[in-house]
Amino acid sequence: MGSFRQLLLAAFLLIALLLGGTALRAVLVLERLVAQSGEAADRALALNAAGQALAARTAGMERTARQSLVLSDALLRRRFDEELRAARGALQQMAYGGLREQDFVRWRRQVDGIVALLQGPAESALERERQVAAEFRDLDAINARLLARGQALVEERDRALRQQLDAERTQLVWQVWGAIALAVLLAVALGLWLARPFKRLQQAIVQLGENRLDQPVDIPGPSDVRRVSQQLDWLRLRLTELEADKARFLRHVSHELKTPLAALREGAALLEDGVAGELTPDQREVVGILRHNTLALQGHIEALLRFNAAAFEARQLQRRRTDLRALVQQQVDAQQLQWQARHLDVQVQGPAVTAQVDPDKLGAAIGNLLSNAIRFSPAGARLRLQVASGPDGASVDVRDEGPGIAEADRERVFEPFYRGQRQPQDAVRGTGIGLSIVQEYVAAHGGRVRLLPSDRGAHFRMELPHAP
Question: What predicted TM-score, i.e. pTM, was given to this entire model?
Answer without folding.
Answer: 0.44
